[in-house]
Structures are given as structure tokens and as C-alpha cells.
Amino acid sequence: MEIIAHGIDLVDFPRIAQMIERHGPRFVERVFTPAEQAYARRHRNSVETYAGRFAAKEAILKLVGTGWRGKIAWTDIEVINNGAGQPEVTLSGEVKAIADRLGIQRISLSITHTAAFAIASAVALMESKAAPGSP
């Protein structure tokens, strides 16, 4: 696999807490898929979990080079942990169409937290092109 793009984002917990307090379920439903919401509800500190997912979505939008605009929906990006606890990305809608045009075949994602911040790093991968004359 070959790295073709990288995106990173940092989110502070108070920002997400304020958005949830100010806009309530409307914010959560607009930004997070039902599976992401269920995952956050299973954790003691759902704000921390939402902040990590929000940072991941921002990092992925940077990775595809668009930011949040046009026909892109926050829920075009879903981040769910696999059985080993590793976050995995599923794209749909406009973000998937953009990623496909860019040749992105997989996104490797890492999310971490401190006492007040969540950071996410996303790396776009594609199959390496074989060198001329290689098998």
C-alpha cells in the first residue's frame, strides 16, 4: 500500500460539550451516525468519545482535501471500532465519491485523548503501482 494523503485534527472537549448542550439531539444526529451514537452512549464520558469521532471526521475531510462543504454530510464518514478496539472508517455519499476519484482504497485512522483534547490522524492508502518489469 502507498500513502497518498494525510489529515490530522485536534478537538477540545468543551467545544463538543457546548455544541451538544446548545443544539442537543439535533447536533448529535446531524454529525454522528446511529452506530457512532450507540458507541458513545456505551462509554462513561460520551463527550470524549464524540470529540474523538469529530476529530476523525475533520481529519478525513482534510485528507480528501475538501473540508466540510457542498454536498458533504458529516454522516458520510462513519468511525466504528473493530473487535480489537481499532477505529475503522466507512465512507458513503459524497465523501466516498471524492475518495474514489482520488484513488483512496483504505483509510488508516488513529484517535487518542488527553484530559481535555481528542486528536485524530488519518492516512489515505492505495495499492502501490508495480514497477516496470516487476512480477
Task: Summarize this structure as a short list of keywords or feature phrases.
three-stranded antiparallel sheet, about 140 residues, alpha+beta, two-stranded antiparallel sheet, Ribosomal Protein L22, Chain A, single chain
Task: Provide a descriptive summary of the structure in words.
The chain has 135 residues and is α+β, with helices and mostly antiparallel strands. The chain has a single domain, classed as Alpha-Beta Complex (Ribosomal Protein L22, Chain A). Helix content is 41%, strand content 29%. The protein contains five helices and five strands. It has helices spanning 13-23, 25-31, 34-41, 46-64, 93-102, and strands spanning 2-12, 77-81, 87-91, 106-113, 117-126. The strands form two sheets. The protein has a three-stranded antiparallel beta sheet. Helix 1 crosses helix 4. The longest helix has 19 residues, at 46-64. The protein starts with a strand and ends in a 9-residue tail after the last strand. The model has no long low-confidence stretch (mean pLDDT 92).
